[in-house]
Hints:
Order of helices and strands: HHHHHHHHH
Mean pLDDT: 86
Helix content: 40-55%
Strand content: under 5%
Bound molecules: iron/sulfur cluster
Shape: globular
Number of helices: 9
Oligomer: single chain
CATH topology: Fumarate Reductase Iron-sulfur Protein, Chain B, domain 2
CATH class: Mainly Alpha
Largest sheet: none
Radius of gyration: 15 Å
CATH architecture: Orthogonal Bundle
Structural class: mainly alpha
Number of domains: 1
Distance between the termini: 27 Å
Amino acid sequence: MTKKKQATGEEQLALLELSMDxxxxxxxxLSGENVFDCYQCGMCSAGCPMADEMDLLPNxxxxxxxxxDPEVMSANSMWICASCYTCQVRCPKGVDLAKVMEAMRQIxxxxxxxxxxxDDLSHREIxxxxxxxxxxxxxxxxx
Length: 143
Ligand code: SF4
Ligand code: SF4
């Protein structure tokens, strides 16, 4: 798949027309989770099967949200998360990180912004990439 230059966190905020304060509020509203419950023990990241592929580890995503770092919105972590709930099971504070990741994706999807816009794929890529991989790169759970 064509690798395009990743937008910075500030560019993502401009695209979403939201401040980091608004994004954190929205994530808490959509997920029902308090990102400030996390005390950075790292248990979630230690058990995450997708951690090696993430720009920010699961606990780093929560830390970035706590300090309102815009780069969290440009990291690929929310799109890589497989919603396997391993982190939630391991978390001593009961933080449901899968729901937090889903809320982050929802913020994009509600603005009609996908991880991989269809127009960015060449005809060759659409023809030859496994269909399931192409679909998985677009919208995750939208219901
Ligand atoms: S739900 Fe996502 S962040 Fe949590 S362990 Fe699974 S892949 Fe990692
Ligand atoms: S396991 Fe829970 S408390 Fe520990 S870093 Fe992860 S989310 Fe935070």
